[in-house]
Each structure stands twice: as C-alpha cells, then as structure tokens.
Amino acid sequence: MNLRTSILLLFLAGVKNTSATNMLGFDIFGDSSKFDPSDSITVDPDTCEYHAEVHINFGAADPPFPSGPDDCTMESTACNGQSCLYEIRNAYKLSKAFRKYTGFNHVGLDWSPCGHPPLDKFGKPHWNMHIFRVSPKAREEVYCEDMLNPFICDFMEEQPNIEGRKFFVHGTDKDGNLANVPASFSAALDTAVPGEGVHAWDIEGTVDVSAWLEPVLIEGLYDGRIQFWEPMFPVEFVTGDSEKFYESNETYVSKTIVSLPSYWSMTYNPDTGVTTLVIEGKAQICPKNSKGGKSGKSSRIRK
Ligand SMILES: *[C@@H]1O[C@H](CO)[C@@H](O)[C@H](O)[C@H]1NC(C)=O
User: Fold this and answer.
1) 210: CA distance to ligand 1 center in Å?
2) Which among 246, 249, 264, 267 is the best mutation to test ligand 1's pocket, defined by most ligand atoms within 8 Å of the CB?
3) How many CB atoms lie within 10 A of CB 84?
4) What residues does ligand 1 touch, defined as CB less than 6 Å away?
5) What string of pLDDT tens digits covers the 303 residues of the chain?
6) Any idea where the domains of the chain sit in the sequence?
7) How many angstroms does the Cα of residue 258 sit away from the middle of ligand 1?
C-alpha cells in the first residue's frame, strides 16, 4: 500500500466515524464535571459481593427547564439553544475498579427537560441515569438509518442497516422470557433511542406522571445484550429541602449477567445537594485475596 492510499484510507476512516456520530444526532459526552461526580467500590474477597456508590450533584449542573408548553415543541431553542424535547447528555466515566467488578463502564447523566413518551407516565422534567455496560465509543455505533421521528428508530419496518436491526434483537430464555431483567419488565419497541437501545421496564406497574416522585428502574436492550441499567427519577427527587430515600431489591429472569445489582438505593441529601446511588451485587470477578498470592488462590479453588 503506498502512502497516498494509506492517507486516503485514514481520511475515509475519519469520515466514517464522523458520520456515525452524526447519525446519533447528538453529543453523548457533554460535560459531567459540573455534577462534581465521584464513585467508590468495595468488594468482599470471601463472598465476592460488591458495595458501590456513585455521588452526583444534580442541582450543581443547573439544567435548563422549559418555561412553558411552547418550549416543548421542535421550534423551541430554549434549552441550551435547542428544543427542550431533546435529552441533554453528559457521560461520567466510572473508576477502573468500579468498571472491573461491576461491568458498568460509564454513567449517562442525561436530562430530559420536557420528559419523553409515554407522556402520561414520564412527561415531566426528569433525570435518566443511564449506567452503561459499554463504552461511549460503542454507543456511537448504536444508530438507525430509518428514524420514525428525530428521537426514535422506526420499529414497524425492518431497519436497512445491521446497527439498526440490533435494536430489535433481545435476549430471551428458552421459555421466551426477556432475560436479565425483572419478571415484571417488558420491552417497548417504540423507545429505540440512538446511542442507547430499546427500553424495558415494568410498563403495567408504572404510576401516572401526576403521581411520579420516586425512581423507576429501566433497562436498555440491544443486540441480545443489556446495554444499560438505569434509575430514572423526576427532578423533585433530587431537589428541595427534605431528604429523599428510595430502595429496592431486584431479581432477574434467567440471570446470566452476574453483576447486575441485587439491591440499590438512592439518597438525596438537602444539605450538600448530593445524591448517592448505592448498588450491591455479585462482582463479575472475585478480587484476589490480599497479598497471599498462590495460597489464596488454591484455597479458593478448593471451595
Ligand atoms: C430487601 O431484602 C432484604 C433481605 O431479604 C430485606 O430485609 C429488605 O426488607 C428488602 N428491602 C426492600 C426494600 O424490599
């Protein structure tokens, strides 16, 4: 290959990347630093159970709000120069140990100023705390050539590209049940969001938007995998003068992703403005027993 060909290929590779980014139609990286984010994890070497925390100051990010219904139209430019219908995304990269033991890669601190469909359930300002199992780079390849509207992929026709078809391939067990999600979950095909996946949650059990105050668990599906695990909560949960607390245990249908949280809680501290997400579960790998090296290892094998 001569130099000119190499340069041409490099150029084309660059163009391809850019077009994939443009396919998403939005920036997934944003700026997470304004949330003053941090995380921590401890893993019990005997049980392999992890306890992990993510600390986020949602108020410090000062998210834009629509001033009225007109801002929730395509013509509006009221939310950071664009329509408040668009989600505003910010990716926070989790620490190395957090990634290693939980399998989670980064957190999308994603603000939905007007809410999003189904509007009778989620049509008010809220946070989508997408905890992705894949890198931001991998998310740039999650796009459709056929969009139904600016926000979601067309789910009624077969997508022409492989990346688009992957939205509608979901992991199920031998009985046809969606795997690695709670038994109450089902997938809503009309939620295939580029950069994310198809959303699954307890569709029947979700309260109406007028009563929505607490976190709701959502999971993202793409190409048979679980793309993200997401607490989604209205802005009321992470603002105001009183402490907020929510907790839940989770069990998953035909669980094959061992590290999915079996317990989680969220606490909003009005004094600091910080919200703490706690997740607990089985680490996807066990930490090596302190310094012991070989002896630690062989005793574990015997168990
Ligand atoms: C979660 O499970 C633990 C252990 O079984 C139980 O003590 C606790 O009450 C449960 N919490 C919730 C919120 O259901």
Assistant:
1) 28
2) 249
3) 26
4) 247-249
5) 454 444 444 433 433 344 444 478 789 999 999 999 999 999 999 999 999 999 999 999 999 999 999 999 999 999 999 999 999 999 999 999 999 999 999 999 999 999 999 999 999 999 999 999 999 999 999 999 999 999 999 999 999 999 999 999 999 999 999 999 999 999 999 999 999 999 999 999 999 999 999 999 999 999 999 999 999 999 999 999 999 999 999 999 999 999 999 999 999 999 999 999 999 999 999 998 654 334 333 333 333
6) 19-287
7) 19
User: Whose C-alpha lies nearest to ligand 1, atom 8?
Assistant: 249
3-state secondary structure the chain: CCHHHHHHHHHHHHHHHHHHHHHHCCCCCCCHHHHCCEEEEEECCCCCEEEEEEEECCHHHCCCCCCCHHHHCCCCCCECCECCCCCECCEEECCHHHHHHHCCCEEEEEEECCCCCCHHHHCCCEEEEEEECCCHHHHCCCCCCCECCCCCECCCCCCCCHHHHHHHCCCECCCCCECCCCCCCEEEEEEEECCCEEEEECCCCCCCHHHCCCCEEEEEEECCEEEEEEEEEEHHHHCCCCCEEEEEECCCCCCCCCCCCCEEEEEECCCCCCEEEEEEEECCCCCCCCCCCHHHHHHHHHC
pTM equals 0.88
